[in-house]
């Protein structure tokens, strides 16, 4: 007999599991989809198929759900499918959850001991002719780019030795390489990090391992045309705590932040470590090198932003300290000093909302000097959106941030609405930086459904040039990416 999902924040209101797989042909459109939008917007997020094994769970632990908006000739179609991982298949066969707490295999049903726990629920990336669903505790999972059928685990033709791969690889626009890494590379709560590179065809060309100062959550990293940057923040793991059934991650503010920088064409033994005060960042905005100066822009908070990862000292969660802001870190490699400069990226904190996250850029400028970032934000002067739940859906606006001046242009979707992560699409291959469209899913709480809005970055505050209606509620996704039609293979069977 099936039980009901728990009545707790991560499973309530907009975050209720939807468990919907569907095809919707020719979505309704208000306005006009620009003729130069021709491609697919892929998204990925968590959506549990069964109530949690332990009776409660955190949002991050849901089964992966990949969705796609196919846009061409002024029309849009939608498709959504579960990522059929080893975990998903075992639980579907049993008709119940079998895997326990987030990243803690010691809490699983004995029936699944030794099985893969990955969910593929964090990001979906196109590279080397493969669409890959990613979660940082496991291998990539190949997905058919047209049907969204799960092909299976992808270990780069058997070459990959790391047990894990980040959900935030960097795609170099000049070389076509995918530069990435795996932390906890020998298994849960191990300190090892594997630095990885795949060429433009998807062939793994490099895998180098090193030990950071301590074992921590390395959710994202930074890549420039000349350097690799690994931030190590004090959200820490402990194998003994896992064995005792405790949480995988705790915040330990007694530890400093470390930042390792190595030449991109060098070796991991060339890693130089810088040290700063305890802080946290989930997402890098961009990074670039200018001679011996390395600049990293990121969304930074004073403490771990997620309240469900406890403080090691037992301190209560401080929402103010957990709010992220755009920051710039500058490292001088010519200096013998192991500190670095930290400055706010946005002008005037008085005009800033309380949180900025889920950053995107014009991907043609990944690894290079750039000017514009696009972020979700929560503005405390606007009505709150409690229906959005604790994670991933409460942004009150989208912002285009000029990192040269600190100024922002914003789009506000209206009351009783919130916005998910944006995606930038250039107007054309030769368009200036930041000239194009922002795509974002908007949650419409009163109507119980979602829209995909298309915003022109030249007049962001004017609102959408097109609103693509989705006749159902799209649970908050984490991340996604746009793939131009010219970058995808011809479909073997495009059956709607």
Keywords, please?
single chain, 496 residues, mainly beta, Methylamine Dehydrogenase, Chain H, five-stranded antiparallel beta sheet, 3 helices, 33 strands
Stretches where pLDDT falls below 50 for ≥5 residues?
Answer: 348-353
Fraction of residues in helix: under 10%
Radius of gyration: 21 Å
Distance between the termini: 34 Å
Question: From the helix content, strand content and strand pairing, which structural class follows?
Answer: mainly beta
Q: Report the β-strand fraction as a percent range.
A: 35-45%
Summarize the structure.
With 496 residues, this protein is mainly beta.
Overview of this protein structure:
This protein has 496 residues and is mainly β. The protein has one domain: Methylamine Dehydrogenase, Chain H. The protein is built from three helices and 33 strands. It has helices at residues 86-94, 239-243, 319-322, and strands spanning 22-24, 28-31, 39-46, 64-72, 75-82, 123-127, 130-134, 141-143, 150-153, 170-171, 178-183, 193-198, 204-210, 222-223, 227-232, 235-236, 250-251, 257-263, 272-276, 280-290, 293-301, 325-332, 341-344, 355-361, 372-378, 397-402, 408-411, 417-419, 423-426, 436-444, 449-456, 466-470, 479-484. Strands 2, 28, 29, 30, 31 and 32 form a six-stranded antiparallel sheet that branches. Strand 30 (436-444) and strand 31 form a beta hairpin. The longest helix is centred in the N-terminal third of the chain and has 9 residues, at 86-94. The radius of gyration is 21 Å and the shape is globular. The protein starts with 21 loop residues before the first strand and ends in a 12-residue tail after the last strand. 48% of the residues are buried.
């Amino acid at each position: 007999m099936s039980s009901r999902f728990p009545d707790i924040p991560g499973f309530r209101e907009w975050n209720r599991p939807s468990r919907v797989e569907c095809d919707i042909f020719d979505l309704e459109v208000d306005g006009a989809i620009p003729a130069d939008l021709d491609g697919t917007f892929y998204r990925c997020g968590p959506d549990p198929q069964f109530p949690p094994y332990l009776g409660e769970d955190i949002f991050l632990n849901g089964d992966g759900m990949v969705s796609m908006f196919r846009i061409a000739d002024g029309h849009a179609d939608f498709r959504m499918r579960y990522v059929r991982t080893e975990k998903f298949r075992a639980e579907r066969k049993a008709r119940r959850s079998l895997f326990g707490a987030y990243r803690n295999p010691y809490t699983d049903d004995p029936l699944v001991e030794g099985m893969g726990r990955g969910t593929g629920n964090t990001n979906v990336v196109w590279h080397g002719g493969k669409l890959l669903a990613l979660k940082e505790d496991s291998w990539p999972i190949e997905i058919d780019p047209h049907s969204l059928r799960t092909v299976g685990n992808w270990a780069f033709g058997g070459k990959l030795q790391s047990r894990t791969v980040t959900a935030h690889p960097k795609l170099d626009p000049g070389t076509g390489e995918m530069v990435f890494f795996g932390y906890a590379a020998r298994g849960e709560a191990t300190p090892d990090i594997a630095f990885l590179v795949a060429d433009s065809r998807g062939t793994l060309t490099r895998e180098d391992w090193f030990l950071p100062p301590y074992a921590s959550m390395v959710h994202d990293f930074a890549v420039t045309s000349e350097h690799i940057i690994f931030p190590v923040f004090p959200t820490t793991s402990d194998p003994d705590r896992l064995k005792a059934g405790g949480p995988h991650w705790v915040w330990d503010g007694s530890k400093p932040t470390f930042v390792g920088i190595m030449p991109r064409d060098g070796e991991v033994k060339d890693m130089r470590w810088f040290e700063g005060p305890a802080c946290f960042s989930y997402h890098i905005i961009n990074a670039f090198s200018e001679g011996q100066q390395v600049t990293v822009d990121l969304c930074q908070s004073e403490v771990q932003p997620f309240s469900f990862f406890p403080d090691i000292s037992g301190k209560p969660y401080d929402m103010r300290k957990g709010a992220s802001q755009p920051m710039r870190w500058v490292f001088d490699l010519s200096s013998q000093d192991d500190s670095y400069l930290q400055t706010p990226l946005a002008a005037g904190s008085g005009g800033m909302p309380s949180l900025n996250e889920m950053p995107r850029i014009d991907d043609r400028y990944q690894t290079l000097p750039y000017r514009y970032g696009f972020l979700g934000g929560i503005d405390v002067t606007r009505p709150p959106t409690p229906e959005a739940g604790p994670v991933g859906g409460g942004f009150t606006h989208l912002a285009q941030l000029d990192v040269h001046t600190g100024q922002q242009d914003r789009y506000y979707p209206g009351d009783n609405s919130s916005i998910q992560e944006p995606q930038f699409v250039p107007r054309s291959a030769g368009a200036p930086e930041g000239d194009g469209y922002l795509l974002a899913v908007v949650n419409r709480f009163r109507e119980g459904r979602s829209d995909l809005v298309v915003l022109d970055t030249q007049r962001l505050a004017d609102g959408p040039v097109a609103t693509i209606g989705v006749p159902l509620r799209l649970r908050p996704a984490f991340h996604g990416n746009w793939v131009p039609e010219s970058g995808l293979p011809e479909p073997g069977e495009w059956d709607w």
